Amino acid sequence: MLGVLTGGVVQEQAPEGRWQLVCQFKAHDAPVLRAGWAHPEFGQVIATCSTDRELIIWEEPEIRTRPFCSRRQSVLSECAKLVQSGKAWVQKAQLVDSRAALQDFEFAPKHQGLKIAAVSADGYVRLYEAIDVMDVGRWTLMVRYIISLLSAC
């Protein structure tokens, strides 16, 4: 079963091929510019970045007992119950070191551990590492680089 994430909407492809809304949640206070999955070795972990200068790490609990949210149901109220019950995506970390909009991020390859690099509009690239891969709520800023932008002639 494939999963698709866009902003605060998670969809999964059912065995018969139809896409179903799994959950919808508020991810940021501004437009989400990128969303992506960590390697499955680290569990169900996603990240989102936005012009609100935040890189947010989300996790879905391992137990998949929740039903799909469907458009026929009251999606927001059903998903709200799932979030409250701990059976839906939960915000685990909020990385707010940037002083400008976050433009992009990328998780490191799995053999390098649970790390994520983020680039912001002020020209900085920041590299974060999960302190413990079993607890994606704790991250440390490993290094910060400034990128000099070259202008074209």
Outline of the structure:
The chain has 153 residues and is mostly beta strands.
Commentary on this structure:
The chain is mainly beta and 153 residues long. Helix content is 7%, strand content 48%. It has one helix and eleven strands, in the order ββββββαβββββ. It has a four-stranded antiparallel β-sheet, with no helix packed on it. Strands 8-9-10-11 form a four-stranded antiparallel β-sheet, with no helix packed on it. Strands 1-2-3 form a three-stranded antiparallel β-sheet. It starts with a strand and ends in a 7-residue tail after the last strand. Residues 63-76 have low confidence and may be disordered.
Key features of this structure:
153 residues; mainly beta; four-stranded antiparallel sheet; 11 strands; 7% helix
Q: Regions with pLDDT < 50 over 5+ consecutive residues?
A: 63-76
Pattern of helices and strands: EEEEEEHEEEEE
User: What percent of residues adopt helix (DSSP H or I)?
Assistant: under 10%
What is the gyration radius calculated from CA atoms? 17 Å
Class from secondary-structure proportions: mainly beta
Alpha carbon gap, first and last residue: 48 Å
Biggest pleated sheet: 4 strands, antiparallel
Assembly state? single chain
How would you describe the shape? globular
Percentage beta strand? over 45%
| Annotation, overall tally of beta strands | 11
